[in-house]
Every structure is written in C-alpha cells, then in structure tokens.
C-alpha cells in the first residue's frame, strides 16, 4: 500500500517468496456435562483444518521488490513498515543484483552495451 501511494502501482514489482501451504489442525473437544460419552479422547485425533501457515527457516527470503533507484528509499521504508506485521526479527537487505536477475548492476549494464545479455521478462539471458 505504501509503495502504491508513494511510487505508483506501475513503478515496482513485488515478489512474495513464500506461501502458506502448511495446514494447522484442531481436535475439538467438548467440555460440557455428559461429554465423556460423546468423545473418544485421542482415538482418531487427526483434527479438522483450522487455517494455513507458511513455515520459514532462519535466513529465508520472505519478500523481494525490484524498482528504479529513485524509488529505492521508498521501497526500504515500505519493507520497514511491513516487517512489523510478521513475528520474529526481519532484516532488510538491498541487493547488488540488477532486478531479479543473478547479474550485478555493473556487469548487466556493461554486457547490455556489448550485446551479450538479452532481457527475458523479469530475468535476463547471457550469451557467451
């Protein structure tokens, strides 16, 4: 929301790097009078799905954004505001790569002028 408001909706590309595939389950137990005749305790205790969650390892990348350099400060501020929505500690790191590619900024610009690199969507192909 911060990036749309301050940079514009066409000025950045946000990539969510993790998705909630892990199912959280609950084995509901009754606690009223006569509940002991209805329940089976731990027999068949595989519960019903209550929600989903994303399992994250330490150091795993959660979100990535690519934008032009003029909006770089706004992107860092947007991530600073977003990290309060997640439990635990988050670190904001500015990459030296060109967008979502594996090439550094200097290499990308030099190879593009030489014609060795070809843009391919959000990525790029290097021709030797």
Automatic annotation (TrEMBL):
Q: Which superkingdom?
A: Eukaryota
Record-level Gene Ontology MF annotations: structural constituent of ribosome
Q: Name one GO cellular component term.
A: ribonucleoprotein complex
Cite the entry's keywords alphabetically. Answer: Ribonucleoprotein, Ribosomal protein
Share an example GO biological-process annotation for this protein.
translation
InterPro entries to which the protein is assigned, alphabetical: Ribosomal_uL16, Ribosomal_uL16_dom, Ribosomal_uL16_euk_arch, Ribosomal_uL16_sf
Q: Which Pfam families match?
A: Ribosomal_L16 (PF00252)
Family designation: Belongs to the universal ribosomal protein uL16 family.
The record's listing under PANTHER family reads: 60S RIBOSOMAL PROTEIN L10
The UniProt entry, under NCBIfam families, shows: PRK04199.1-4
According to UniProt, the name of this protein is Ribosomal protein L10e/L16 domain-containing protein
Q: Which organism is it from?
A: Minchinia chitonis
């Amino acid at each position: 929301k911060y990036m749309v408001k301050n940079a514009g909706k066409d000025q950045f590309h946000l990539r969510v790097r993790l998705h909630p595939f892990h199912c959280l389950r609950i084995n509901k137990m009754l606690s009223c009078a006569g509940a002991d005749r209805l329940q089976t305790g731990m027999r068949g205790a595989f519960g019903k799905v209550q929600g989903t969650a994303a399992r994250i390892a330490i150091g795993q990348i959660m979100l990535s954004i690519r934008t032009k350099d003029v909006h770089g400060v706004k992107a860092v501020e947007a991530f600073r505001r977003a990290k309060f929505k997640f439990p635990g500690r988050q670190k904001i790191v500015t990459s030296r790569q060109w967008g979502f590619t594996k090439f550094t900024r200097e290499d990308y610009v030099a190879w593009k002028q030489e014609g060795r690199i070809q843009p391919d969507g959000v990525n790029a192909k290097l021709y030797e």
